[in-house]
From TrEMBL:
Solcar repeats lie at residues 13-104, 112-198, 207-296. The lineage of its organism: Eukaryota, Metazoa, Ecdysozoa, Arthropoda, Hexapoda. It catalyses: citrate(in) + 2-oxoglutarate(out) = citrate(out) + 2-oxoglutarate(in); glutarate(in) + 2-oxoglutarate(out) = glutarate(out) + 2-oxoglutarate(in); 2-oxoheptanedioate(in) + 2-oxoglutarate(out) = 2-oxoheptanedioate(out) + 2-oxoglutarate(in); heptanedioate(in) + 2-oxoglutarate(out) = heptanedioate(out) + 2-oxoglutarate(in). It is a multi-pass membrane protein. The keyword Isomerase does not apply. It is found in: Mitochondrion inner membrane. Its main location: mitochondrion. Transports dicarboxylates across the inner membranes of mitochondria by a counter-exchange mechanism. Can transport 2-oxoadipate (2-oxohexanedioate), 2-oxoglutarate, adipate (hexanedioate), glutarate, and to a lesser extent, pimelate (heptanedioate), 2-oxopimelate (2-oxoheptanedioate), 2-aminoadipate (2-aminohexanedioate), oxaloacetate, and citrate. This is Mitochondrial 2-oxodicarboxylate carrier. Keywords: Membrane, Mitochondrion, Mitochondrion inner membrane, Repeat, Transmembrane, Transmembrane helix, Transport.
Length: 302
């Protein structure tokens, strides 16, 4: 695979292969790891003023136990439809943007550096928010409630009727989402490509597979630590408010400050353990599926 990969012609054919590989990688990662996203969201939504529609969870295992006890296995897959609808095109577009815009961030270097990958990744992660945000709002609304398995279209319709399409409705929390994505993807792509270039590659295909997977795992874990505070703020803004009819969490900075003053510094990292449980394998799966998928498509069709 090293040194024998056939490069597709630049332009539409290469972008198409990146689109297909990125979309497939995103869908695979979602299907395997969505239950952990449900657990993470439930924990992050907890504040000092409990929403009556939500149980309180003392930790990750307590959350998993209560979801299973009260909602059954299907409870772990709440909110799966919006990500399925958004993940394939979103990840596909992200990888195309990431690959196509890397030349803009060479800064005079003959080859892409770790900074090149970080900047291109941050740009791609930020731009995808225009597609992602409405699906995130619907997904978190579905994940927040334990009593019913809420229909996706009904939830979306209710949000639009009550709050509209703008920053009070389907695009609420977009600033927090953009900040989360920019920070996460800057660290993730920068670390992954930087370490992959620095650490020696293996001739053995399985050993090389494990090397790339380990780097993706590590890069995603570190990126989660840097971005989790904005993920908590996003969940609070996009999810059900603690007091019905009153908007407590509206903007990113005030939300972070409110969480800090009411719940302490540790609350800014709520859900980090389960986020890392999801992000580590997710980061490995995503890059492995994308890179090997792209290589396969290149060999087969170019």
């Amino acid at each position: 695979m090293n040194g024998t990969q056939k490069e597709p012609e630049p332009g539409k054919s290469k972008a198409l292969l990146q689109f297909l590989a990125g979309g497939s990688a995103g869908l695979l990662e979602l299907l395997l790891l969505h239950p952990l996203d449900v657990v993470k969201t439930r924990i992050q939504l907890q504040g000092v003023h409990a929403n009556p529609e939500q149980l309180q969870y003392s930790g990750v295992m307590d959350c998993i136990s209560k979801i299973y006890h009260y909602e059954g296995v299907s409870g772990f897959w709440k909110g799966i439809v919006p990500p399925i609808c958004s993940e394939t095109p979103k990840r596909a577009c992200k990888f195309v943007i990431y690959e196509q815009f890397k030349p803009l961030f060479l800064f005079g270097a003959p080859q892409p550096t770790a900074l090149t990958h970080a900047m291109a990744g941050a740009l791609a992660g930020t731009l995808e928010c225009a597609i992602l945000n409405p699906f995130e709002v619907v997904k978190i609304t579905q994940q927040a409630y334990r009593k019913d398995s809420l229909n996706t279209l009904n939830v979306a319709g209710k949000i639009i009727r009550n709050d509209g399409f703008g920053i009070k409705g389907l695009y609420r929390g977009i600033t927090a989402l953009m900040l989360r994505n920019a920070i996460f993807h800057f660290a993730y792509f920068g670390l992954y490509q930087g370490l992959k270039d620095e650490l020696p590659a293996y001739e053995d295909r399985f050993a090389e597979f494990l090397r790339r997977g380990a780097i993706g795992f590590f890069a995603s874990i570190v990126s989660s630590v840097f971005s989790v505070t904005f993920d908590v703020a996003k969940s609070r803004i996009q999810g059900p408010q603690p007091i019905k009819g009153t908007i407590k969490y509206k903007w990113t900075a005030p939300t972070i400050w409110t969480i800090y003053t009411e719940e302490g510094f540790r609350a800014l990292f709520k859900g980090l353990s389960v986020k890392m449980m999801r992000a580590g394998p997710g980061g490995a799966i995503l890059m492995l599926a994308y890179e090997y998928g792209f290589e396969y498509l290149t060999i087969k069709y170019c």
